[in-house]
Design goal:
The complex is a heterodimer.
Chain A: H1 2-23, E1 32-38, H2 43-56, E2 61-65, H3 69-78, E3 84-87, H4 93-101, E4 106-120, E5 129-131, H5 132-139, H6 150-153, E6 163-167, H7 172-181, E7 193-195, H8 198-207, E8 211-216, H9 217-222, E9 228-229, E10 231-234, E11 237-239, H10 243-247, E12 255-263, H11 270-289, E13 293-294, H12 297-309, H13 326-331
Parallel strand pairs in A: 1-2, 1-3, 5-10, 6-7, 6-8
Antiparallel strand pairs in A: 3-12, 4-8, 4-9, 4-12, 4-13, 10-11
Helix pairs in contact in A: 2-11, 3-4
Chain B: H1 2-38, H2 44-48, H3 61-92, H4 97-109, H5 114-128, H6 135-159, H7 163-171, H8 176-204, H9 208-212, E1 218-219, H10 246-254, H11 262-293
Helix pairs in contact in B: 1-11, 3-6, 3-8, 3-10, 4-6, 5-6, 6-8, 7-8, 8-11, 10-11
Chain lengths: ~325, ~300
């Protein structure tokens, strides 16, 4: 028995040694490490930036990115365990208090847009646009068990079953959609097909002629043939989600900025500073590549300025707000 | 009368066969789907590359190395402790209410959801002991997770050894330890090994506790090599290194927008199944070798 374990361990160590020796000529501990964790929505963006940044500084600087979620990221961030937190929503009151308690100051930098797309199956012939009121009528908690057919929403629509798909209640997408449409985060009807995996939602919506659902814009952008986006009726008529309408702020209220929060103390380290500057400079190009929507150029300019001048704090009072232009957020005097 | 019994016989046979077909059929179907989706992506480039935003350039290397190292720590910690605890409970401990209690607790622990172990580990290893989100923490967490399974199966295996063997050894003047080391353990080794492999196979697919203790998703470097060019030529720095494991990498790929990463996820799944099969294969081989040596 003992002999076998020994042999097993020895074998494994040998194999690993081979692996490690073959692939890592540079001593690992000579390089510096930047730790990023947080929202899985922001992850593809940070991953792309980290990949390019590491390629640019081959072997010298290492970046790690995790997906603990916005909340999990802030927890680690306010304990000082990570240098940068990815967040799909602004920092909340409790998190601000925790950061303050641990003496952690931070830069709040918007990096990209995320938009939610309300979508129906390509086989659906009757829906082109919807108003916020109609969406609210469908999704508010009171609709549960009552609003079950399309003609209940708009009388000109057919008398067909209304099949709903949406985000699971643990996701930031769910919080944002309910906040923007129903008016209160996490307030939604419960009798719909929910999934944390947005690809599952895309499939579900595509296959059923009578379906309606919402997915993050990137999932729609990646598979536009499978979904038909619904235009949202705003002040100046219906607006379809697209990179342009999200960017110029007409696709409202279903678009929101994504943030990175940078630990002010860590930002004094040259490698973290370089990484953040790289993020704000090269980000727009990479963001489009991973199918997210870049911010207006002016917003990046303002974010760079804020970082350069050392302006710490959040533009929100610990409450998420819907439908704010990014420039507006960056103009506000930040609070700690 | 006989006719009825024969009918029942045939009926049960059919039922058993269909149950087997259902189980194996589902497995074959799943594995087949994985194979079709993933086999084209499973090449040398995939095995030796780091994660990337381009599906065709992304690879699984850090996850494979991470999974292997974590399993190494898990095996080296979980197996000796688990086996030793089982031996103590079976061979040394007297039956008291305390051992009864321990027994019940261990059996119940085997059924506790893995996320609970993750939360425990987050408090104990990451914060109290200050081990951070490292390979060591993950390995210890999974060791905790497999401990009850190892203990239960080891005890079953030891219990299957006839009492006469022990009595014969004692009669010849062997001490308890000599009896255990020279007779009980070698004879029950094949059973113990089966338990260990089952436990490790469960551990390698675990995601929840590993995410809880802070595994990463994007990591484009490997842990420091365990061999160095300066004396003492061995380094344990890799134990404290940040890491990722295969199920997490798979999950990250599955949940990305679009379908281009689906093949990567399938290929990673194939690799994971392959690693589990390899572990099982090794166990079967070792078990076969050991059985040949046992003669009584």
């Amino acid at each position: 028995m003992r002999r076998i374990q020994l042999v097993g361990c020895r074998l494994a160590v040998g194999l690993l040694t081979l692996l490690c020796l073959g692939n890592e000529p540079v001593g690992a501990n000579q390089s510096s490490l930047i730790k990023v964790d947080g929202s899985s929505t922001v992850y593809p963006v940070t991953e792309a930036v980290a990949e390019e940044f590491q390629n640019a500084h081959r072997g010298k600087i290492r970046v790690t990115v995790g997906i603990a979620g916005s909340g999990g990221g802030f927890k680690k961030f306010c304990r000082g365990e990570i240098d940068i937190a990815d967040a799909s929503r602004p920092i909340l009151k409790e998190e601000m208090a925790l950061c303050q308690k641990n003496g952690i100051a931070y830069y709040e930098l918007p990096v990209a847009f995320d938009a939610l797309t309300v979508a129906v199956s390509p086989k659906n012939t009757w829906v082109d646009s919807m108003t916020i009121e109609e969406l609210k009528k469908i999704w508010e908690p009171a609709a549960q068990g009552k609003i079950m057919r399309w003609n209940q929403v708009r009388s000109t629509w057919p008398d067909a079953q209304l099949v709903l798909f949406g985000a699971g209640s643990d996701s930031g997408t769910f919080d944002y959609f309910t906040d923007a449409i129903v008016g209160k985060p996490k307030s939604s009807r419960g009798d719909y097909t929910a999934s944390e995996d947005d690809n599952v939602l895309v499939q579900g919506i595509e296959r059923n002629t009578n379906s309606l659902g919402y997915v993050p814009y990137a999932y729609y952008a990646a598979q536009q043939k499978k979904l038909k986006a619904v235009a949202i009726v705003g002040k100046n008529g219906p607006v379809l989600p697209s990179a342009d309408t999200v960017r110029n702020g007409t696709y409202q209220p279903l678009s929101r900025p994504l943030f990175i929060y940078v630990n002010a103390e860590a930002a004094k380290r040259p490698e973290v500073r370089q990484f953040v500057e790289y993020y704000l400079a090269e980000g727009p190009k990479l963001i489009a590549e991973v199918r997210y929507v870049p911010l207006p150029d002016q917003a990046y300019e303002m974010a760079r300025e804020r970082f350069a001048k050392g302006v710490v704090g959040t533009g929100f009072g610990g409450e998420p707000e819907v439908g704010l232009p990014v420039e507006e957020i960056l103009k506000r005097p930040p609070k700690q | 009368m006989i006719k009825r019994r024969k009918f029942f016989e045939a009926w049960f046979k059919a039922l058993g066969l269909s149950a087997l077909a259902l189980a194996v059929g589902t497995l074959v179907l799943l594995f087949g789907a994985l194979l079709i989706d993933g086999i084209g992506r499973l090449d040398w480039q995939f095995l030796t590359s780091f994660p990337s935003r381009h599906a065709s350039q992304a690879g699984i290397l850090p996850a494979v190395v991470g999974s292997t190292l974590v399993m190494l720590v898990t095996a080296c910690v979980g197996i000796p402790i688990g086996v030793a605890a089982a031996i103590y409970l079976e061979e040394y401990a007297r039956r008291t209410w305390l051992t009864e209690l321990i027994e019940v607790t261990v059996t119940n622990l085997a059924g506790v959801p893995s996320i609970i172990f993750g939360l425990l580990a987050l408090g104990l290893f990451v914060y109290m002991l200050g081990l951070g989100s490292s390979i060591l923490t993950a390995g210890l967490t999974l060791a905790l997770l497999i401990l009850p399974v190892v203990i239960v199966t080891t005890r079953e295996a030891i219990r299957a050894i006839p009492v006469q063997i022990r009595e014969a050894a004692f009669a010849l003047g062997a001490t308890r330890w000599q009896t255990v080391a020279d007779h009980v353990l070698p004879y029950s080794a094949s059973g113990i090994l089966t338990g260990i492999i089952l436990a490790l196979s469960r551990a390698i697919g675990e995601t929840a506790p590993i995410v809880t203790v802070g595994a990463l998703t994007f990591i484009a470097f490997l842990p420091p090599s365990p061999m160095t060019d300066q004396p003492p030529y061995l380094s344990f720095e890799w134990l404290m290194s940040p890491f990722t494991v295969m199920p997490i990498q798979m999950f990250a790929w599955v949940s990305r927008p679009g379908e281009d990463f689906a093949a990567n996820a399938a290929a990673a799944g194939l690799l994971l199944v392959g690693m589990t099969l390899a572990m099982n294969g090794l166990a079967i081989y070792v078990r076969y070798r050991m059985r040949k040596r046992v003669s009584w």
